[in-house]
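User: My collaborator sent over this chain with a note saying "see what the structure looks like." That's all I know about it. Can you take a look?
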Amino acid sequence: MSTDGFYSIIDYTVDSVDTQRELVDAFAEIQERWVRFYPGYRSARFHVSTDGTRVYNIVHWASEADYRNFVETSDTEGRMAAIRKALEGLSGEAEARMSGAPTYTVVREVGPGPQRLGS
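Assistant: Without extra context I'll predict from the sequence alone. Here is the result:
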């Protein structure tokens, strides 16, 4: 299992399944227009809760340095304006749930294998 990389995890509460879909579509377009061509960008995965109330956007970078380079050299003002416009264009409500910098490193991962027995 690989635990390499650096992640930004964006978390939104939404009011419906329709808003989930709209938010995922809007944020996927933002990734395509503003983010995915930067060195070290690996992917953006979108997770929606089955109850229609949450959306997680997990952006994977090869390293923290690649993420920091993106932050320092990208058009943050333009990207933030695109995010504001996307949120304003939703038919429902979406509220960001992150506090502080939503950045993470993986420290451990448990993959498939035999059942561990005993203590």
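A starting point for your reply to your collaborator: The helical segments are 17-35, 64-73, 76-88.
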